[in-house]
Amino acid sequence: MRMADHQYPETATRLGASPILSIAHGAVAPAMKLPAAHSHPEPLLMGTATATVTVTAGDRDWLVPPGYGLWIPGNVEHSGEILRRGEGFTLVFAADRSPIDWPEPTGVIVGPLLRELIDHLQRIEHNDPTRPAAESLLFALLRPASSHDLRLIMPTDPRIRPIAEQLVADPADDRGVDAWAAEVHVGARTLSRLFAAETGLPFARWRTYARVHAAIGLLVGGDPVGAVARAVGYRKTSAFIAAFSRVTGHTPGTYRDANRPESNQTLNRNSTTSPSAMT
């Protein structure tokens, strides 16, 4: 996918009378330039399998890590930045035929089944006999992420934004406040104050949130809990499970089953705030 090409019907697969106007899918990398802030009548779904991106949509910054997607309604101004290379996708929908009418940008979990459906729909012709069933299942799977999925606020201050972006791209980075302060040439107290003011969290707690946020995407993709713990910076799986449970209120295993209908129902019953997977 070349996400920089935003003339959707012309640069991706055109799908006739389908509610899906186009699908773009492929590798993305930080060196790729994304479009400046823009809007269009067509709603879209963008997400990643292995990449990490940030999207400014409406008045919010959204962090989209592996295993997540973001629904952007039509006429909502948006722009993006690729933080970590990997596989990503964009689906564009007909403004007058989309079965989804969420009025605001909305986070979704993009599990293996949804990714396979996107790949299948990109490969087949618009008149393929399997298309109606595949599209119906795709729309059924597009549900707002449950409210307990982690909200991660990205700071905007240019002195600490690079730190946040680096920790999102590499959550296993274990440098502390003093090391980061030296890296960006600010005092340790100033760095701590900025993180608390910009994100509402102390630096160490924000980093824990960033690690858990990254872990959710990996768990939804089916990675083993121990491997996920190491990937996001925990040497001991037990420490990871404890941190994960404190942040989300659930064990990591809950997210490995996130695509099962009964698991989604359990998660939604435990939700107490408005849906959001990313911010």
UniProtKB/TrEMBL annotation:
Mind telling me which InterPro entries this protein's record contains? Homeodomain-like_sf (IPR009057), HTH_AraC (IPR018060), HTH_AraC-typ_CS (IPR018062), RmlC_Cupin_sf (IPR011051)
Question: Where are the residues of the annotated region Disordered?
Answer: 251-279
Pfam entry (one): HTH_18
Q: Where is the composition biased (Polar residues)?
A: 261-279
Q: Which UniProt keywords apply?
A: DNA-binding, Repressor, Transcription, Transcription regulation
HTH araC/xylS-type domain spans which residues? 161-258
Task: Kindly list the GO molecular function terms attached to this UniProt entry.
Answer: DNA-binding transcription factor activity; sequence-specific DNA binding
Q: What is this protein called?
A: HTH-type transcriptional regulator RipA
Species of provenance: Gordonia soli NBRC 108243
